[in-house]
Amino acid sequence: MISIPLEDRVLTALERNPHVARRNLRFETSEGRVTLRGVVRSYFQKQMAQEALRHIDGVHEIANELEVAS
Questions:
Q1: Can you tell me the distance from the alpha carbon of 6 to that of 8, in angstroms, rounded to the nearest whole number?
Q2: b/e for 26-54, b at 16 or more Cβ within 10 A?
Q3: Rg for the chain, CA atoms, rounded
Q4: What does the DSSP 8-state code read for residue 41?
Q5: In 3D, which of 25, 29, 28, 36 has the Cα closest to residue 63?
Q6: What is the pLDDT of residue 1?
Q7: N or C: which end of the chain has fewer CB within 10 A?
Q8: Both ends of the chain: CA-CA distance in Å?
Q9: Rounded Cα–Cα distance for residues 61 and 70 (Å)
Q10: Taking the model in full, what pTM does it have?
Q11: Which helix (H) or strand (E) element contains residue 35?
Q12: What's the rounded Cα separation, in Å, for the pair 50 and 62?
């Protein structure tokens, strides 16, 4: 069975989420921890980015460091 790397699964989840503008996001993965960075337009988008990752197999912790543009 071919295992899809966690980075690829995270990227796919963010790209498929209609509430998140992917161009302003960066992320890092390390041992099941995903750190989100970048700027979003609203607290809703910040939350939706995190929710997109919540059910990915292999993600054990999400550090949401996204900033909301003011």
A1: 5
A2: ebebeeeebebebebeeeebbebbbebbe
A3: 12
A4: S
A5: 36
A6: 63
A7: N
A8: 46
A9: 27
A10: 0.89
A11: strand 33-40
A12: 7
Quick one: pLDDT at residue 46? 95
What is the 8-class DSSP label of residue 49? Answer: H
Count of C-beta atoms within a 10 Å radius of residue 23: 6
**C-alpha–C-alpha distance, residues 29 and 6, integer Å:** 7
Enumerate the H helices of the chain as residue ranges.
Answer: 6-16, 43-54
Query: Any residues with CB less than 8 A from the CB of 57 and at least 6 apart, and which?
Result: 9
DSSP state of 24: G
What's the chain's average pLDDT?
A: 93
Which amino acid appears at position 28 of this protein? Answer: E
Over residues 29-54, the pLDDT tens digits come to 999 999 999 999 999 999 999 999 99
